[in-house]
Design brief:
alpha+beta
Length: about 100
């Protein structure tokens, strides 16, 4: 199975990934994504949203934020709940994965 992934200008090609045991397209895509992301530093993101019940450090979440591009996933590292102007808010700190 061959999967071609291009990010940015594609002027720094990485070596091919050969994994004969990956026979599912979703697993192969995730493997390729992990390889691409492994060379980038971790990005810490802070999000404030309406109250999120049950959010805990260690949870994996998917964020759809039009200002950050397409949806991305992150691991929750900190959770704080506050009340302001009669609204319950949750502040999450994540590390993009």
């Amino acid at each position: 199975m061959i999967i071609t992934v291009q990010r940015h200008s594609a002027d720094r090609p990485a070596p091919d990934i050969v994994e004969p045991l990956l026979n599912d397209i979703r697993a192969a895509i995730e493997r390729g994504r992990a390889e691409l992301d492994s060379g980038e530093p971790l990005q810490v993101v802070r999000i404030t949203a309406l109250y999120v019940a049950g959010a805990q450090p260690g949870d994996l979440v998917e964020v759809a934020d039009m200002y950050q591009g397409g949806p991305y996933r992150g691991k929750v590292t900190s959770v704080a709940h506050t009340a302001a102007d009669g609204k319950l808010l949750t502040e999450l700190e994540l590390v993009r994965v």
